[in-house]
Amino acid sequence: MAFFDIAYVAGLCIAAPYWLLAPKARRKVFKALHERVGREAARTEPNPAVMIHAVSLGEINATPAMVGLLSQARPDLRFIIATTTDTGTARAQQLYSTNPNVTLIRYPLDFSNAVRRTLDAQRPSVVVLIELEVWPNFILECERRGIPVVLVNGRLTPGSYRGYHRLRPFTAPMFRRLAGVMAQEQVYADRFIGLGVPPGRVKVTGTMKFDTAQVTDRIEDADEIAANVGLSPADQKIWVCGSTGPGEEAILLDVYQQLLTQFPALRLVIVPRKPERFDEVAQLISARFGLIRRSKARDAIACLNGMIAPDGTLLPKVSPTSASAMVASADPPPVILGDTMGELRKFYSLADVVFVGRTLVDLGSKQHGSDMIEPAALAKPVIVGPFTGNFAEVTNCFRKADALREVRDAAGLREAVAEMLTSPAAKEMGLRAQQVVRNEQGATARHVEMILAHLPKR
Question: 39-213+441-454 in CATH: which number?
Fold first, then answer.
């Protein structure tokens, strides 16, 4: 066993009293030990392949543009998409399950044997890591096989940098082995160099997050969603809260209750970040307001051309216009729960004002912030709370252009939403945000150039 294998086993043993006794942690550990040990079927095509590792939902959403540009430049390429989280894996299935040129796998745990099995089975020509996810055994085994590893959209938070720097005698060789680093900002580039990446291999290229957003004023099928859940954008004000986290939904419902005194017909849409919280948030909403769940409304419309009433009962065969009028007439109007995957952007397109979640409550540094680029690309006025650390570079871009409203608490949120619903300046702020997205796009193409440079020639 390698040094790091021994360290990982020791860590598992030391933490065993916790994860063996905590059911949720125990399931997570056993699932990882079952799914992430390199047992996937071997890739059989002889074509060169690019292995792209995207940890979770945000990273996997950045991969289609990269895959598309690489495919255009090298039609002979195949792709291996490796994910870590369940939400990232589910999104990868949505994006690639029907693409014959893409193999989906779970990224191996950093045990030497698991890494070896994965690399021997998948035979990547180059490995692309998104943002960070640098693991010593994986990097070492790639070097032994002559597989270049490049890191794109690179970012290092102050906490991550301090942690790696404290262990620099162990981590510096790992960073020195990287074939290239494309950093989002100069501050990140300097941190990677400080950890051991040779300066000549580090470039500042911006963030791919802007490239995933489609700059437009209209989203296909948004009208279908509106009719399905009883929204009428033409004559209603709509507040969409996307990617919300624990503790935020209760605050949003309090603020909504207060706003209803000034805007009696205001509609609220809440879309939690994690699917496993859909039922929890549904109970929270239904305890105070009528509830319309997008998933149930969609099933009803598909089966019976019907609608979900505020009390949850099915109204058979009503027209979309009648459904919207019926729902809007409730006092107070029911809250809509977006509990389907891949439709947040469509809800954003219906909004008059957007709040981006995981920013109002401190959920820990790893969960500070969510993607505010999508609503900005739709020219929507966007409000965020104070916790945006994971999107610091994106927030800075919008902040410099006065294209974002930042609030510190529930009172500030209520004031900001009311202002956005009444002030003509809100539209101008949304247009400035949309222009920021246009100006910042292009990082993916720069990353693709570097990846192509490390691929074997045709």
Answer: 3.40.50.11720
